[in-house]
Please model this.
Amino acid sequence: MTRTATLQALGSVAVALALIALWQLAANAGLISPVFFPGPDRSFGTLWEQLHEADFWLACGETLRRMALGFLSAAIAGVVLGSVLGLSERLRSYVEPTLEFVRPLPASAVIPLFVLLIGLNERMIVAVIAFASLWPVLLGTVHGFKTVEPRLGEVARMLHLSPLAFVLKMALPNAMPDIFAGLRLALTVSLILAVVTEMLSGMEGLGHNIIMAARSFRSADLYAGIIVLGAIGFATNLALERIERHVLRWRGTEPG
Amino acid sequence: MTTPLLAGDHLGYQVGDAPQLTILRDISLTVREREFVCIVGASGCGKTTLLHLLGGLLRPTEGSVTFRGEAVTDPDPALAIVFQDYGKALLPWRTVAGNVALALEARGVARAARRDIVMELLAQVGLADRADAFPVALSGGMQQRLQIARCLAQKPQVLLMDEPFGALDAMTRQTLQDEVARLAAESGMTVVFVTHDLEEAIYLGDRVIAMESRPGRIGEVVDVDLPRPRNQLTTREDATFLALRHRLFTLLPAGH
Amino acid sequence: MRALKGLVLPVVLVALWELAARSGFIVAESLSYPGAIARAALGALADGTLIQATKETFGAALAGMALGAALGIACGVAFGLWRLLAALMRLSTEALRPIPSVALIPLALLIYGFGYRMEIAVVAFACFWPLLIITESAVRGIEPRLIEVSRALGLSLAARIFKIVLPAALPRVFVGLRLAAAVALVVAVTVEITANPIGLGYALIVAQESMKPNRMLVFLLWIGLLGWLVNVVLLRAQQRWFGRMGSWAERR
Model:
């Protein structure tokens, strides 16, 4: 890193710490009731305690497990379906308008429907997460397969590549950047829906924890829970970005 | 009288419904084995269309193309096409070696044998030291050489080159001209080279076919009786060269 | 022609569904059939709940979006114009951004209790980030020549921002607003589903809990329709106002 960049990074750490200090001061001054506004000492303190409790890790594990199941099944289904749609102009013309309608639908709106169909249980939660995560992956994959460079198609014809070889060697790698863009969005969605479904269903999990904390006015627990969820969002996104950067390293210094 | 390797017989190509646009009209040409034929014409005269017809990417609306005595209806690895937009014809997600290997994979060459063949071809085009780089890191001239290497890996009988150096600067163009001439001479390859640059056509070819525009048709065909190997400096000042240039200049619109 | 093709899939699905319900393939209580849903739709319209709930959701979403977008654009302009500020705030913004807006629902509930304010707060948080990022990027991407000209003309900071920077960044900011509108609607409905007893989301939950699947589906489809409509309208607006000029002030 250049010298300015290092200084700026340090500066941003300093600013962040200063903001936390400000938070502490405000909490100490008692301007807002500590019921709503615990200071970082209580919030992080509670977080630290929670990290030593088995219950916390249980809840964390449940949330992550549901996220993973929903996200992965949506990822696989999305890529498979998306590749078929992306390569077939005919199929697309029939399906695309319906996709355009479902895309802006708030995923959480289907929760009551899924509850009616599946019941208020574990399967419903994973199904909702998978349903919501499917669309970004599907749409991203369709776009990626749709936009294969036509010149490459001509090269494939010239080399007498089989249709499968074309898909595996040309269409799929070409679609990767779009697929990853869809996956990143799906990851965010899966976290959100995990939290929402847990809040609604009363089943063990981080979402359930924070709504219970709010209802019983345990603000420090609530803040701690928010921090944990933010951390999960950050970490999962970072992991996916690392994978993406490795898979797409052929892009060189091109802007992503 | 040797039978021509590649021949076009009264080729015509029209597009559209009403009005119909005639791109090519009544084009007949023959290419003998080991010949270096240059097709030169102004932009828009249809020479790229002609090349695509010869390569089987397009089907003529009139007449036929024959290769080794058989009709050409689809592209074939034996008729390798080097495209002008090299960037679009390469796989950005594969290394230089990987791109050349694509042609070998298509041919069904055993995995164990591929590396050696790839390195040999890369050495021929002067890219051996960049085998593990990605196309995005290469200059335009290098990318075009990579495409040529990939085409050579197809073990073609004819190399169809579509204004391959049009997008490159003058110096790179001259270097690559000599390289292609050398490759053709060493391997005894048959080449059909399309360009809008009259001097390039005369410099490279054994025979030059000059096309007229709107609609595209054969204007004049001349044999180039210049000694090989050609030299950028001396050949271009040769009296025969200048006479040919003079003769064909009038056929092409001003500016060529 | 394309519109007709697009209707094939939904029509086929609906027809299959009607068939399955009538033939007893699907248990009648768990789900309904299209005819009954249509009737329920008219019912919801007639007793005013559909309109009322729509007004509530839209009201909260709009207010939240206005607040979040205004703050996001303001910060985005600031970050775009002053790199140092953006760099210093980098860690703080990156730490706060990954927090899912839904995680703040309990907090907003705690502070504001039920009602509009908590929903507006959550929607504002959700809309803030896309607008911040897009505005910052848009301001950074303004043709530097324009900025130099504005300085040479001796314009005050405020004048520079309102006469040069904002208009130049407008096309991309509008795209951000389009995005934020969709987000606002989704988040508003989600807040209503999880915690807030107003609006379309709440109506959805009430219908489900009172075992009225027809009514629930009506609200579900209505929400979907609204989301689609909002997107289409904004897309048309974007194409009309900015289509011809493209990215008019962007760095080439």
